[in-house]
Design a protein that fits this description.
By secondary structure, the protein is an alpha/beta fold. It has one domain (about 1-10, about 30-140): Purple Acid Phosphatase, chain A, domain 2 (4-Layer Sandwich), CATH 3.60.21. It is built from 4 helices and 5 strands; from the N terminus they run αβααβαβββ. It has helices at about 1-20, 50-55, 65-80, 95-115, and strands at about 30-35, 85-90, 115-120, 135, 140. The strands form 2 sheets. A 3-stranded parallel sheet has the order 1-2-3, with helices on both faces. A two-stranded antiparallel sheet has the order 4-5. Helix 3 packs parallel to helix 4 (about 95-115). The protein is elongated, with a radius of gyration of 17 Å. About 25% of the residues are buried.
Length: about 150
């Protein structure tokens, strides 16, 4: 899967370079790349027992501060103003529809405030993932996925 993702990412970068060259760009193309955000919308958890247990075993993903991390990242993009921002998957924790929609809102806003063209490449967690979950109290609740 990662080999295919790398090929897609390389193809996107190559196409962007051709596009900007064909448009007569006379400056260097500045591209920022981020990967594996694993965004989880805060509306999908209440901080209860199920969520706490899940985060203890989440391989270093820090869901409690993901909005702050994305905000700090956005601040950097707004200040450095790259031409292109590519975010490769995993975009969301497990393909939760709410997480996709909330992250898309944030990226659309970032595109407007920074002037960067934003491109996303979904990862294996992002599409048709049966593990899309919300957390209420001591229970994991199935939620809509993409």
């Amino acid at each position: 899967m990662h080999k295919n993702l790398n090929k897609v990412l390389l193809l996107c970068v190559a196409l962007l370079m051709v596009f900007f060259t064909a448009c007569g760009a006379e400056k260097d193309l500045e591209i920022f790349i981020a990967s594996d955000i694993h965004y989880l919308d805060k509306d999908l958890y209440d901080g209860g027992e199920a969520f706490q247990k899940y985060t203890e075993n989440s391989n270093g993903r820090n869901f409690l501060y993901i909005d702050e991390v994305v905000e700090a990242f956005s601040y950097e993009i707004e200040n450095k103003k790259p031409d292109v921002l590519i975010i490769s998957g995993d975009l969301t924790n497990n393909g939760e529809k709410n997480s996709h929609l909330k992250l898309a809102e944030k990226l659309k806003k970032l595109e407007g405030s920074s002037g960067a063209k934003v491109f996303v490449i979904p990862g294996n967690h992002d599409i048709d993932n049966p593990w899309a979950r919300g957390f209420e109290g001591s229970k994991q609740i199935l939620t809509d996925n993409i």
